[in-house]
Structures are given as structure tokens and as C-alpha cells.
Amino acid sequence: MGGYVTVTGIYQPCKWSADGTPTVLALPAGGTEGSLQAINSSGVMAGYAKVTDVYQPCKWSVDGTPTVLALPAEATEGAATSINSSGVMAGYAKVTDVNQPCKWSADGTPTFLDLPVGGTEGAINGINSSGVVAGYVDVAGAYQPCKWSADGTPTFLDLPVGGTEGAINGINSSGVVVGYVTVAGVDHAAIWLADGTAIDAGTFGLDSAYFYGINDLGVVVGEKGNNDWSVELPIMAVPATYN
Known about the structure:
Layout lengths: L1 E6 L2 E7 L5 E3 L6 E9 L5 E7 L2 E7 L5 E3 L8 E7 L5 E7 L2 E7 L5 E3 L8 E7 L5 E7 L2 E7 L5 E3 L6 E9 L5 E7 L2 E7 L5 E5 L5 E7 L5 E6 L6 E6 L1 H4 L1
Antiparallel strand pairs: 1-2, 2-3, 4-5, 5-6, 6-7, 8-9, 9-10, 10-11, 12-13, 13-14, 14-15, 16-17, 17-18, 18-19, 20-21, 21-22
């Protein structure tokens, strides 16, 4: 597992072994803080590091060696939020302070992905073994769930009945994606099947809920909370509970 720990108030990238042992990872030269956002089946990690006060996409090898990833020429900062089994990464890069979806090949070459018609900004939150990515696109100030095929073609996903906005946080190898949808001002956990069918999974008994990841068995993880998040609980759901 990967994420971060706070050391004297500053995020530091951290990896936990299968038995739960934590290891704080090195930052790239000039880095002052950072976080892991994803790890693949080989143990290669992706995330970001703050270097000379600018957030930069970063990859850590299995042994923990950090490498800052190149940005597209016009971008100023970014982050890698996901990585697949081939080492292809995805996330976003900023251009004039606006997030744009970006993908990095296994050798670190960056490529902006097109936004669908009507989109003004976006980001990728998940990538699967086929190179299909998913995240969100901003349309007239509202996030809309979006999936990009392996060749980079974007497709908006339909919202469940009553939904006004939403975003994708994770994708499995079958192309099933998970995230959230906003219904009547309330955020509900949501799933989109591979054919695009949207499922509103509700709030699991609290005021809001979000799904963050799904594995190839269809098991989903996320969180739920009350309005002020004084109560915050994990969620794990299996297909029988959301289909």
C-alpha cells in the first residue's frame, strides 16, 4: 500500500508492506514533500513531489528510488494519480492553472488527452491494464464522469436518475468504474458497469458516500460520513449489494 505520513506537519511519501510495516520513501533532489497516489502489481509507485515549491508528477521504483516525470511543454505542474501493471501512469498536468488530463507512457513520455466537447478542464483518477483511463471533466462548472479509451478518445458517462454531477475514482480491468454522483445536493457512491449503465449505490446510512476503488472481482471500497465528517467510516461492497 502507498500514501503519505505527516512529519512535522509535512507530507512524506510512505509505503506499507503486506504485513503493515511502514517505510518513508526518499524525495527527488530538491523535493520538500510528497505523496504516493497509486502502486501497481510490480510495486512501482506513482504520485507527486513538491520540488522548488512546484508540485511535480513522480514515480518511485520498487526499491524506492524517485524520478520526477516530464511535463508536457506548456504545463507547469501536475501529479500522477494512477499506474497500471505495464507502468503506464495517468493523472493531470496544469496549464495556466487549469487541470488537463495527462497520461505518461512507461518510459515517462507525457501526453495530454483530449477533453470531450463542452469540457474546460479534467483529470484522470484511474487506469486499468488495457490503458483505459477514467476521471472527470468540468462542464459549465459541474464535474461529469468521463472515460477515455486506450487510444485517448473521451466519452462522457451517463448519470443515474436525478444526478447532476459526478466523478470517477477507480477502474478495474473489465472497465467497470466507481466514484460518486451528486443527487439533490447529496453525494452518493456510484458504479458504472462496462456498458455504461449507472448504478446509484446511495449513502450507506449516512449523509454522503464515495467509492474510491474496485478490483477485478467487483469488490468496491470507499467511505461514508455525516455532514460535518465528525463520523467517517470505511465502506466495502460486493456486487450483490450494489447490482
